[in-house]
Write a structure and sequence with these properties.
266 residues; mainly alpha; 80% helix
């Protein structure tokens, strides 16, 4: 092709036909420009395909994370709900219970004073933020929803820290120093079997352990400090349940949005 253009150019020059040569020169420039534009368009198309492929991969990873968060939030929801029920059981027992039935309060006491840290699965979102790649998601609604979900998760985590500092460390754990947790073995048969202590703890030992456990728990339940912790923690968990339900709605809505976006981009 280059040889053909060269021959035409030489022929026009030899003919000394300036007008035809100018027309030819302009035509050649136009062809070069068109070629450049086509090359740029192909390059842009390739880059766009790479961009879309990367976005598709992130959308899929976000969907996996959110499915995991959905399952995790169900566990957290159940855990918080059980703590509210445990607090209710303790409060009710304080009014209608008696020393003979105090052992029935032990599971509720242990449930309320146990602690599990909330750790959401936001690996892909954190990667998008830390790498400055959030704008790779072209759907603004999804981006805004992800940011809102992150804020709500952080609010729940911050709330947990407040509960932990104010109620658990300040009220529950101080009183738990007055209780020997090993005495709980006397009423937890499955744990005794798991630890293979059936032949090590005699019936008389169990009775003594239950007696000490009963006295310890009775003393703790009468503590004004502990009662304050029970009431304030119960209220905190009730409010947290509302936030968890909002998080569950956010996650379910995002899952549907991502599924629609993936179908559109597939």
């Amino acid at each position: 092709m280059t040889k053909i253009f060269r021959r035409i150019r030489q022929s026009l020059i030899s003919e000394k036909n300036i007008s035809k040569y100018l027309i030819y020169a302009i035509g050649e420039i136009v062809l070069v420009v068109i070629g450049i534009l086509i090359a740029l368009q192909i390059n842009n198309w390739n880059e766009q395909k790479k961009f879309e492929k990367k976005e598709f991969a992130f959308l899929n990873r976000l969907l996996v994370d959110l499915e995991n968060d959905k399952d995790y939030l169900e566990i957290v929801h159940s855990r918080k709900d059980n703590k509210v029920k445990a607090a209710n059981t303790i409060i009710k027992f304080s009014f209608v219970g008696n020393n003979d039935s105090i052992m029935k309060i032990i599971p509720a006491y242990l449930q309320l004073t146990s602690w599990q840290t909330i750790i959401p699965n936001q690996n892909t979102f954190n990667e998008l933020i830390s790498s400055g790649s959030l704008n790779i998601l072209r759907n603004d609604s999804i981006k805004n929803s992800l940011l809102q979900l992150d804020r709500n998760f952080q609010a729940l985590i911050d709330w947990e820290e407040v509960v932990k500092q104010d109620d658990y460390i300040g009220n529950f754990w101080t009183d738990r120093d007055e209780l020997d947790p090993y005495n709980y073995l006397s009423v937890n048969r499955s744990l005794i079997r798991e630890l293979e202590l059936d032949d090590e703890i005699t019936t008389n030992q169990k009775l003594v352990m239950q007696k000490h456990l009963s006295k310890d728990v009775e003393k703790i339940l009468k503590s004004y400090k502990f009662r304050t912790g029970v009431l304030s923690t119960r209220d905190d968990y009730v409010n947290q349940l509302n936030l968890i339900e909002i998080l569950e709605d956010d996650v379910n809505g995002l899952i549907k949005s991502l599924e629609r976006e993936l179908l559109r981009n597939n």
